[in-house]
Fold this sequence. Notes:
Elements: E1 21-23, E2 29-31, H1 47-50, H2 65-68, E3 81-86, H3 88-101, E4 116-122, H4 131-135, H5 150-164, H6 167-172, H7 184-196, H8 202-205, H9 209-212, H10 215-222, E5 232-236, E6 238-239, E7 241-244, E8 247-250, H11 258-268, H12 291-296, H13 301-307, E9 336-339, E10 353-356, E11 362-363
Helix pairs in contact: 5-7
Amino acid sequence: xxxxxxxxxxxxxxxxxxxxxVVDWDNNLIPLRDLEKLGSFSYFAGAEKxxxxxxxxxxxxxxxxxxxxxxxxxxxxxxxxHFVGHSAGTQVVRVLQQMLADKEFKGYQNxxxxxxxxxxxxxxxxxxTTRTYFDGMQPxxxxxxxxxxxxxxxxxxxxMYDWLDIPWLKAYYNFGFDHFNMSRKKLGLxxxxxxxxxxxxxxxxxxxxxxxxxxxxxxxMNRRLQTFPDTFYFSYATKxxxxxxxxxxxxxxxxxxxxxxxxxxxxxxxxxxxDVPPPYKGYRYMREYTYSQIRSYGLCVEAFESICRDKDWxxxxxxxxTISMTHPRLPFEHPSRLVVNDSDCxxxxxxxxxxxxxxxxxxxx
Length: 365
């Protein structure tokens, strides 16, 4: 995660981390070696093996953003850290910084937002993703699941996985729900039935990742998260779509993973359900208005088209909408600047999200 200093500050600014620990569910420090991940798979291509100053904790694929934010090591304001977050990991770091600023860690009263020097977002889920609705979240509230959907199958599978609690399997991969005590030894048969019926467990409480990634869930989170004036913020937005005759479609077939292609296609044709209230104030449907009606409301046609239509959410990379990746914009805009050339971000300015992308945005590999 870096030494808390930029390369331009020359030699003598590096630092080395030793005996790193993380905070577990009960707010106790445990060694990093006790963390589990998917076998030997490294999420950041083995970066943690190439430099001892780089830490890549494994947080569980389905845990909520707030649960994930407790899993970082000890440091202080005099030794701040550079954080790099991918997808939902960006919001995890933002939550962590807010928790540091609000002094939410028990036994650590001297924390502050200055413990983090910079945050770099790679395809960050700042404002949620419409994919959650295709996967099975209800678009009217963004919290409940559709009765028949992909994530219902996921829910049942995860509950059974944690309930069986097979040691060698859990050692290979852990979804991160141990704090819900869903093991058969603690839950029993009737407890399993209760979880499967939706009366208990993380999916009932909304304490899992997909409810945080709906537009509604992201807005609720963004209301509490600040962009701090002394922190450097960078973001990289990606997409795997393009426009053909005004229609948004996946950019190519071979360049997108098969598991993402169908979702990229669905997201590129996104239309908010007409029988459901808009997800946020200012969201409109172009099909409901004629140009003469728009002008009669005193609105500029071009401005209305640019911010108030489903098409804004159609560019995507198969997982997230490109509009969601640049900076926090819902329910209110955070300071931001689009960076096309490197010179656009110089001199570096803290307290503003620098969205580094080409005019067509980067292509997510």
